[in-house]
Design a protein that fits this description.
The protein has about 350 residues and is of the alpha+beta class. The chain contains 10 helices and 14 strands.
Length: about 350
């Protein structure tokens, strides 16, 4: 089946009219999992269709309807909350279709991905501030969902995949962080163990005295999922929603833009974005984001600093594990291979050593 016919079939399966003409589409994205197309319908409406790839990270994907519902249904929940919080940021229309021979999502067109190469430092700061303000508002809403962690599909509805007492789940997370710390300290790596231990333990002590309600957060905030609309307003698509502590994932944005994505700049998965070349602009986005999210609250800024430190530990731990094991083709595409993993590991250790201890 040729591409226009595939797009028309996706529209038909989701209850939309056909393409305005066989050429009324253009590709607007090519991720690891989907190819995205902006289409114009017979009635003139524009939508984005994401067609799922059959081969993902070099591996033929088996059809699993349950897993696909768990991936796509939470996106609709996130969009709905975003629309109540800040109308227009996320697509107002969202639906999906799952069948062995066609897996797709269809949503409103929300704008073009940010072009890092076109941003000045001032524009990056302003854009980051809008992003931070949006996430602060999203995190203030009670999501009214059961469970914790990644969202899944349970009994025909969306819920957190981790069920049970949330306090116990959060304590288990602290224990995992402590285990990561002990593995890093027991490694053959060369670094100031006393400083790294104090830095991480200080962050965990702070967390123990900082309580906050669970929020609907987003794990996938790369520049390809952040949009600039025609009027300059913020847009966001393709979230990976979780139920989690908001400061944990507010700091995830900063960690990604100032450390993780520049460190992954040469990985095949991210090479076309040239994150390393745009590191200064990404740091400006993160600075604006922090200002927009914290809104002048020094305690909240400190909270982000502490959580970012724990992300650094997790990255260092995972990189050390990868460095000392065989890596899959997917891991190579995501990380750039063992040389890149080693570089990222050393950078993470240096940042942990330099962390303030007061």
């Amino acid at each position: 089946m040729d591409l226009p016919a595939q797009l028309d079939r996706a529209l038909r399966c989701c209850g939309f009219p056909p393409l305005q003409s066989p050429s009324s589409y253009r590709q607007v994205g090519a991720g690891a999992w989907h190819d995205a197309y902006l289409v114009t319908l017979a009635d003139g409406e524009q939508l984005v269709i994401r067609l799922r790839k059959q081969v993902i990270y070099g591996r033929q994907e088996a059809f699993d309807a349950q897993a696909l519902h768990e991936e796509y249904a939470p996106v609709g929940v996130y969009y709905a909350q975003a629309h109540r919080c800040r109308p227009g940021v996320c697509p107002a229309i969202y639906t999906y279709h799952i069948a062995p021979d066609l897996i797709c999502t269809i949503e409103s067109y929300a704008g073009a991905s940010i072009d890092l190469s076109s941003l000045t430092t001032g524009a990056a700061l302003a854009y980051g501030r809008r992003v931070g303000d949006f996430f602060r508002a999203m995190h203030a809403i009670d999501p009214a969902l059961d469970g914790f962690g990644l969202l899944g599909w349970r009994d025909g509805r969306v819920a957190g995949q981790e069920q049970g007492d949330r306090a116990a789940i959060r304590q288990a997370e602290v224990l995992r962080i402590q285990e990561q710390l002990e593995r890093v300290l027991a490694s053959d790596l060369h670094f100031d163990r006393a400083r790294v231990r104090r830095a991480v333990e200080h962050a965990l002590e702070w967390r123990g005295g900082f309580d906050e309600p669970i929020a609907l957060v987003n794990r996938d905030i790369t520049p390809e999922n952040l949009l600039i609309k025609a009027d300059g307003a913020l847009g966001l698509v393709d979230p990976v929603p979780l139920l989690h502590r908001p400061t944990r994932y507010a700091s995830w944005f900063r960690f990604c833009y100032t450390f993780l994505l520049p460190a992954l700049g040469d990985a095949p998965r991210y090479a076309r974005h040239e994150f390393k070349r745009h590191a200064a602009i990404m740091a400006a986005i993160a600075e604006g984001y922090t200002a927009g999210y914290t809104q002048g609250d020094p305690a909240l800024r400190h909270a982000l600093d502490m959580e970012e430190r724990l992300w650094l530990l997790g990255s260092t731990h995972d990189n050390y594990q990868l460095l000392n094991s065989a890596i899959s083709e997917e891991q190579r595409l995501r990380t750039g291979g063992k040389a890149a993993i080693s570089t990222s590991l050393q950078l993470g250790l240096r940042k942990l050593e330099q962390a303030r201890l007061d």
